[in-house]
Amino acid sequence: MRSCGIIVEYNPFHNGHRYHAEMARELSNADVVIAVMSGNFLQRGEPAIMDKWMRTEAALSNGVDLVIELPFSWAVQSADYFAKGGIKLLQALNCDAFCFGTDTQETVDYQKYGEMFVQKEVEIDCLFQTLPIGMSYPEKMAEAVRQIFPSIQEFPPNHILGLSYAKENAKYEKPMEIYPLVRKDQGYHDTEIVEEKFASATGIRQAFLDGQDITAFVPEETSKQMKQAISWEDFWVYLNYQLTISTPEQMKTIYQMREGIEHRLKNTQAETFVDYLLKVKTKRYTGTRIQRLLTYLLLQVQPEEIQKEQKYSMLHVLGFTQQGQAYLRQNKKEFTLPIAAKMGQTEKEQHFLTYRADQLYQLIHPIEQNIGRTPIRV
Q1: Residue 194: is its pLDDT beyond 50?
Q2: In 3D, which of 154, 108, 146, 109 has the Cα closest to residue 124?
Q3: Residues 91, 94, 95, 100: what is their CA dihedral angle, to the nearest 10 degrees?
Q4: Distance between terminal CA atoms of the chain?
Q5: Which run of H or of E encompasses 243?
Q6: Per-residue pLDDT at 106
Q7: Which residues, including other chains, have CB under 8 Å from residue 329's CB and lie 6 or more apart?
């Protein structure tokens, strides 16, 4: 069975995601489409609008055959680490191909770029360190890549992720075939929706919060699930508690807490999360970077915990179709990581950050997220 992998978040699952799954199958001539999906907290440092089980069900009902969870320690990270974790799991699943969405209209040979990046990685890292301190991480990485690869000039968010995927894929002895797919929906950050069947996840979330009708842009499963939508505001009381009781010295020990940013986080006052984020973010500390820091603070994540959970990687199966189940049975002896059909005590101890994040998520969404949950079958 030929397989094609995709790395996703589905926040929420919409028509563009269904198109992605369909085209991944078509472009790669795959029998099985495998999604590695973030759990209940996402790459941009925010809680998922719906839990991982709901998003899994929507995916399996709309073109995906197998969903594997990307653990917290890889999921809530900058593009490079997010890509590294996702590609690692797809490689462990012996995927033949990989398909991702890109915002750029440029013709980019991602396969070749990945190979060249691996060859010039030391040179890029050295150049990165010489760039001005005031630049954000994405700005510095984009500038370093521009100087080393003058042919690449555009850096919209999904293009940055695409480049990260390509370089991680190229590090393996048997890289997956790469199939980039130009987005049909709006740009990644577009907040308005238009009268077409495709809209960005950001636009759909904003439209839902504004009371607009989103049924034209999402499958039926998502439309029903949105009634249980969750946002950062639901966690604001818990975050505000951590900000109140933690000293700057305690906050400094949190993962990625650097350059005295703990003082700015501690001393900023606000009534709502949205207001707090607007006050605390800067050009150097973007909203996304701040959100990830706040997620780490909310969960009291220590640097050594990230490394420990990443060390114990596994293939946690969230759900499958009949075709996806057949792929697991046919190939499981060749997988390079252990499979977990459900989270028992051993899996809980190894993926302890993911478990901790799920326990917190359950405070707002009181449905069991881990122990005893078996894969969804569609």
Answers
A1: no
A2: 146
A3: -10
A4: 19
A5: helix 236-245
A6: 66
A7: none
